[in-house]
Amino acid sequence: MAQKVVPVILSGGSGSRLWPVSRGSYPKQFWPLLNDHTLIQETALRGSACGSADPIIVCNADHRFIIAEQLREAGIKNPKIVLEPVGRNSAPAIAAAAFLVAQEDPDAILWVMAADAAITDLKSLQDSLQNAVLVAQSGWIATFGMKPTKPETGYGYIEAGSPIQNIPQAYEVARFIEKPSLDIAQELIQSDKYFWNSGMFLAKAKVFLSEIRSYEPEIYTTIKQSVQHCRVDMDFIRLDEESFQKSPNISVDYAIAERTKLAAVIPGDFGWSDIGSWDSLWDLSPKDPQGNVVYGEHIFLDRTKNCYVRSDGIVTAVTGVDDLIVVVTSDAVMISHRDNAQDIKHVVARLSAAGRKEAVEHKRLYRPWGFYESLIQAERFQVKRIVVEPGGKLSLQKHYHRAEHWVVVAGTALVTRDNEQLVLRENESVYLPLGSVHRLENPGKIPLTLIEVQSGPYLGEDDIIRLEDVYERN
Fold first, then answer.
1. Which domain-ending residue is among 273, 300, 327?
2. Which residues form the Nucleotidyl transferase domain (predicted)?
3. Are residues 103 and 79 in the same domain?
4. DSSP string spanning 7-69?
C-alpha cells in the first residue's frame, strides 16, 4: 500500500456497558477480554499490520502510563501518545490528530478507529482497507459498513447509495440511521443496502480538517490553537488545556459524518464488533457444548445453558439457569439476562448518582509508578498493597489526617522521611508520623511490594499534599 496510512486510535471511552470489569479508572480497552492481548494492544497491532506509519493514540491524560506500558508490552514502537486535557468527544480528538499529521504530510490518510473494538478476520480487513484507501485518495471520507448478522439495536446503521465510479464495492452514503428500535432493525437487515456503522473512518488529513472547518469552525480554531501550543512531556504530547477545553463536545458522527457530502461506505465482513455489551462478548467467545462461556477458575456449572460467566478471583457457582450474564469482581457482582445486556449502563448511572465509587473505580488503582489496592478498610484504619515498578517514584507528599506504616514484602525501597533517607529491604519497615514529608521510590531491578497501614480520623485519597511530582500531577 503506497499511500501513507496513519492509524489513529481513540482511547477515550469508559465502556460502562461492560461494568463491573470496565470502569472509568480502567476501561475495557485495557482488559484482555478475548485473548492474551488487551483490546488496545489488539487494535495497535492491527494498525501496525495494515498501516504504513507509526500509530497515534489520543487518550485521557490519566491513562497515559497504562497505554504506554501496554503498547511497549505488545512491541509497538514509536507510538505518538496525544493527551487530552479534558474529554471533548471524538471530533476534537480526530482534529488534533489531523493537525499533527498535516504538519508533516497533509495528504497522509488517517485511519481512525476506536481502541476497544474486535476484528477476527485480518485478511478480509486488509482487502477492505485497500478499497477504503482508494476512496480516501479520491477525496472522500470513507467508513466501513459491517454486514449485519442480527437485528442489533446497539449499533447505528448506514444506508448505501449510488456506487462510486471506478472503485469496486464502494458507495456514497445515502444516510446514517441512529440506533433503531428492534422492529426497525429487523426491517433494515432484510435489505442488502443497510450496514452496521463501524465507527472507523479513512480520509486525508487535509480533508478531515477542511470538513471540520466547514461544519464546526469552533472545533477547527480551538484545536488548531491547542496543537500549536502543545508541549512534549516525557514520551507524550500534551495538548494545550486552555484552548482545548473551549472546543465543543461533539462526536465525529454529528460533527462531520452525518453532514458532509463526501461520506462513502465500503461494505465489510471481517468479524467486527464494538464489544458494546457482555452479550456481544458471548457471541465472540468460544463456548462449551452447552453454549456457555466461562472465564475464571473454580467456577462450577450444572444444567446451565447459553450463559456468560466471568469470575475474577472468587469462586462462583451457577446452576440450572439459561441465558444469563454473571460477572463477579472483588467488590461487585452483576447478574443480567442476556437480552438486557444493554441496560447495564443504567446500573452504572444509578451507582454514579448515588456517589458510589464502584461506578468508576476498582479496588486496584493504577498510577504512573505502579498500582495500589485496598485490602481492608474500617473506622480509623486502612490496609493497602502497594506495588512500585523499577525506577518508579511516588510524589514527595504529606498528610494532614493520617499516619502510615510501610512494611516491605519484596524488593528494595528508598524512603524519604523529612530530612533523612532510608533503604529498606524485605521484612523491614518504617513509620511515617502524621505531617511528615515523605516519598517512596524503587531503586531496584524488580517490582517493590509493600503493605501500607494507614491510621487516622480521615483516610481519603484527597488528603495528599503533593510538594513535588515527576509526573506533573496536581
1. 273
2. 7-289
3. yes
4. EEEEE----GGGTTTSBTTB-GGGS-SSSSS-HHHHHHHHHHHH-SS--EEEEEGGGHHHHHH
pLDDT in tens, 274-331: 998 999 999 999 999 999 999 987 677 778 999 999 998 788 999 999 999 999 999 9
Burial call 396-419: b when 16+ CB within 10 Å, e when fewer: bbbbeebebbbbbeebbbbbbbee
Residue 297 sits in the same domain as residue 369: no
> What pLDDT is stored for residue 47 in this prediction?
93
Please, which residues have CB within 8 angstroms of residue 142's CB and are 6 or more apart in sequence? 132, 135, 136, 170, 201, 202, 203, 264, 265, 266
From the list 228, 201, 203, the residue with the least C-alpha distance to 108 is: 203
Distance between terminal CA atoms of the chain? 45
DSSP 319: E
Sign, CA torsion 430/435/441/446: positive
Range list of β-strands (E), 66-192: 80-84, 109-114, 118-119, 141-146, 157-163, 171-177
Place of cell 472547518: 213
Q: What is the pLDDT of residue 419?
A: 96
Number of DSSP helices (H) and strands (E) in the chain, helices first: 11, 30
At residue 474, the pLDDT reads 67
Find the largest Cα–Cα distance for the chain.
75
pTM of the model: 0.91
Identity at 182, one-letter amino acid code? L
* Structural domain range at position 170: 5-273
The cell for 325 is 450474564
Those residues of the chain that have pLDDT short of 50 are: 1
How far apart (Å, rounded) are the C-alpha atoms in residues 350 and 353? 5
Cell of 116: 476497544
Let me know: does 308 contact 338? Beta carbons within 8 Å.
yes
Q: How far apart are CA 86 and CA 37, in angstroms?
A: 28
Domain boundary among 273, 302, 327: 273
Cell of 288: 462449551
Q: What was the pLDDT predicted at 298?
A: 66
